[in-house]
Amino acid sequence: MAPVQSRRVAIALGRPAGSRFYWRGLESLPFDMETYLRRLGPSAARRSFATFADATRAQDPFGPTGVLGYLSDSPAFQATRAHPATPPDMSDFVQARAAYLDIFTTVMDANRLDALVFPQMRAPPPPLHSDATIEATTVSEINIAGLPCVVVPAGTHQNGAPFCLLFVGRQWSEAHLLALAFDYEHATRHRRAPALIA
Fold first, then answer.
1. How distant, in Å, are the alpha carbons of 49, 93, 99, 105, 149 from that of 145?
2. CA distances for 17 relative to 22, 45, 134, 145, 151, angstroms
3. Does residue 6 lie in a domain region?
4. Last residue of a domain, one of 89, 113, 143
5. Which residues contact 198 (CB under 8 A, 6 or more apart)?
6. What confidence score (pLDDT) does residue 6 get?
7. Whose CA is closest to 119, among 83, 175, 55, 162?
8. In what order do the strands lie in the sheet with 162-169?
9. 3-state class percentages of the chain: helix first, strand second, coil last, to nearest 5
10. What is the rounded distance in angstroms from the CA atom of residue 106 to the CA atom of residue 193?
11. In sequence order, which ranges of 137-173 are alpha helices (DSSP H)?
12. Does residue 137 fall inside a structural domain?
């Protein structure tokens, strides 16, 4: 493999040690939220990232124990959080996205594939209200590369929890991907209507 390609692969596949979720791209969240809230107009309940942060101070989502606490390890996120009206430098994200997409396209072309299909989760989902982590597969990488995917029912785990497959396709292949998922769903009839709880 050429040195340039090796470097691109390293950029694409690198993730913080011990990280279960790859947050790359989320460093723009404060800027994105600021932009969104300002566009809601003067009648919106929250009109800036600062008002959102103030309203959620008691359960700070970005604090050490917050649901997005892992973002505090990112210097780029901290900079954007401090100045949410300033567009962040997303050059690392753009470079990683291009590398992910290049790897995906290379594999698809080399093997003449229309789509990839694999389990949506590594393990059965944890019980409702559990503190256990949901073990998703490659959701971060799919999102970063901007690839379309469809989740379809594929039976159940031993504990009765739903088991699903993830169909992933090339960029702009939504119509073909939906057709594949539709055909699979109708051929297998795995879907069961959810039970209503009174």
1. 27, 10, 8, 10, 11
2. 10, 39, 19, 21, 28
3. no
4. 89
5. none
6. 42
7. 162
8. 115-119, 162-169, 149-156
9. 45, 10, 45
10. 39
11. 139-145
12. yes
Bridging pattern class, strands 162-169 and 149-156 = antiparallel
Residue 5 neighbours by CB distance under 10 Å: 13
Distance of alpha carbon 107 from its chain centroid, rounded?
Answer: 21
Q: How many residues does the chain have?
A: 198
pLDDT profile of the chain (198 residues), mean per 10: 43 53 81 95 92 90 84 86 93 86 94 94 85 76 88 90 92 96 94 72
Q: Any idea what DSSP says for residue 121?
A: B
Could you tell me which of 12, 40, 161, 187 has the C-alpha nearest to residue 97?
12
List beta partners, residue 103: none
Whether 75 and 47 map to the same domain: the answer is yes
> DSSP characters for 4-36?
HHHHHHHHHH---TT-SS--TTGGGHHHHHHHH
Looking at this protein, which amino acid is placed at residue 39?
A: R
* φ and ψ of 191, to 5 deg: -65, 135
- Statement: the pTM of the whole predicted model exceeds 0.85: no
72 lies in which domain range?
A: 26-89
The helix/strand/coil state of 90 is coil
The rounded distance, in Å, linking the Cα atoms of 5 and 125 is: 37
